[in-house]
Design a protein that fits this description.
Layout: E1 4-9, H1 15-26, E2 30-32, H2 33-37, H3 51-61, E3 68-71, H4 79-82, E4 87-92, H5 95-109, H6 117-127, H7 139-148, E5 153-157, H8 162-176
Parallel strand pairs: 1-3, 1-4, 2-3, 4-5
Helix pairs in contact: 1-8, 5-6
Protein name: Adenylate kinase
InterPro entries: Cytidylate_Kinase-2, P-loop_NTPase
Organism: Nocardioides lianchengensis
């Protein structure tokens, strides 16, 4: 299958997990937008690449392939890449479940160490997603972006098991193949 898919949603909605599963099921490469958004540092996620640099890297390394799955959010900087997609999958999740997932992930990443200032700031940012007045990446901004897309969009509740979600995306992607 030669399909290029973008899986997006709120942080903690499971876009990376599902993206890896779909890429595996389709036997195509997977990448996450964060791989291009952030400069590799230790600790991670402290230095952003400039948008032009992100796009250049994506266009050099990943996008030219005939098929791929890209997870994460490129809201506000990646429309050039989304234009190369055959379809977009938008994952939603109950905010309480999503935030619990994020907190568990952060605890795992920190090896059980207490939450530091950077983690607290990240979790506060992630909580803002469902607030209609939030100025960052939010459900409202995602919905507006989706409404403006000229690509097919599949909406899924990521509370479902990953294998069920993966099967739904693979079936949907097969239907995109007939679209001209």
């Amino acid at each position: 299958m030669t399909c290029r898919l973008h899986l997006t949603g709120a942080s903690g909605a499971g876009t990376t997990t599902l993206g890896r599963a779909v890429a595996g099921a389709l036997s195509v490469p997977h990448a996450d937008a964060d791989d291009y958004f952030w400069v590799p540092t230790s600790p991670a996620y402290v230095e952003q690449r400039e948008p032009a640099h992100r796009l250049r890297l994506m266009n050099e390394i990943f996008v030219p392939r005939p098929a791929w799955v890209l997870s994460g959010s490129m809201l506000g900087w990646g429309d050039e890449i989304v234009e190369r997609c055959d379809g977009v999958v938008f994952l939603t999740l109950d905010p309480e479940v999503r935030l619990a997932r994020l907190e568990a992930r952060q605890l795992l990443r920190r090896g059980g160490a207490p939450i530091d200032d950077a983690t607290s700031v990240f979790l506060a940012w992630a909580r803002g997603y469902d607030d209609p007045g939030f100025d960052g990446r939010s459900r409202v901004r995602h919905e507006e972006w989706l409404d403006d897309l000229d690509r097919p969009v599949l909406r899924l509740d990521s509370a479902l098991p990953v294998d069920v979600l993966c099967a739904a995306v693979v079936d949907w992607a097969a239907g995109l193949q007939g679209r001209a």
